[in-house]
Structures are given as C-alpha cells and as structure tokens.
Amino acid sequence: MPGHSGARRLGRPRPGAAGYVLPGGPLFNNFRGQTGSDGRLALPGLIFVGDAVATTTPTFGRGVSTTLMQAGQLLRLLDEHGADTGTAAETFDAWCTEQIRPWVDDHVRMDEATRRRWAGQDVDLDRPLPSDLILAAGRADPGILGAARGYLTMTELPSSLRAVEPRARALYASGWRPDPAPGPGRDELAGIIGEALGAAPESSKVPVPAPA
Which of 71, 74, 32 is nearest to 54 (CA)? Predict the structure, then answer.
C-alpha cells in the first residue's frame, strides 16, 4: 500500500507521523442515496455505487457483498435502460433503499445494543433483539440458526430473523446468556499491555498527553 510507505520507513507508526493512516478506520454505518436534499439526482449521468452508497462497521465484513449486489443490479438496469442513465439511477436508488439500506440499519441496531452491553447493561428485552443476539441464541437453540441461513448468506433481508426472534427472546427471558468470547480478562489484558510497553524501546514509545 503506497499510503503506508511513510509509516514503514519510520519502522513503527506514530500518531501524527508522515504516512500514519488507518485504512478502514473511519468505517461507519452510512447509507447515501443518489439524490440531494432537493430530491433530485446529485449529478445526472453519475451513479454512485459500492461504498459511495453504503458502508457498515466490519462486524460481518459485508462491504464486498453489498458492493457486488449493487454492481449486479446496476449492470442489469444499464442493460435495460441504455443511455437513459437518469431512469437507471432513480430505479437503482429505489432498489438500494429496499435491498441495501436494511443491512446498514441492521448494523446500527447491533452496534448500539453492543455499546450498551459494553457499558454494563444487560440484554434489553423491552426492545427488538438485535440480529447478533438472535444468532447467539442459536447456540442453545439450533433451530434458530437453521432459520437464519438466508440472513447469514444475505439472500434474505435482516427482517427474516423476526420469525425466530420470539424463540431467542424466550431464551434470554429465562436467564440464558451466551458465554463470553475466549480471551484475556480485563486485568490480564492490562498486564499484557503493561509488559509490552515496558519492553518497548524508549525511542518507539508514543507520549500520552496528560488529561486536560
């Protein structure tokens, strides 16, 4: 990656150093249509596709899939409408709203629920269960995963999981919770970081600014 050349020459990337970049770092859940705030096409003859239409946090690595889905649909529309790019763009925009935006909304709900759980809150049974919790319940109820095949392969929209949400909700209401992912606990992780910082050469350490 040419953009990394400055960081590689430095030997160890440092914030603020030349070439210090984080490809994929600013991946947010965003959906952008083909029209501006006035409802008109942003630029006649130009059709946005791929990340220009939708990005999601890399929980499931869906960016390539949603881009290929868009590319296939756009090619079909261009074959159908030929030089009428305006009609193709408007039809493509409606298709993306129906077929791509639900995946972005799905990630928004999952990320917000994850944030609350990371903050120490329990599973909120007063809200619709996010998709990741429905899938997690499949560990205790294999029938849930069987019904989630379309969601996992992206051949069915996230709304397809609503059919098995009651089964997942019943599990959580009974007190069941998925086992945490294997890995170091908080204190062990802090120790690992401390050891790594202590072993690093002074010249490679990045100064940490004092709190304001």
Answer: 32
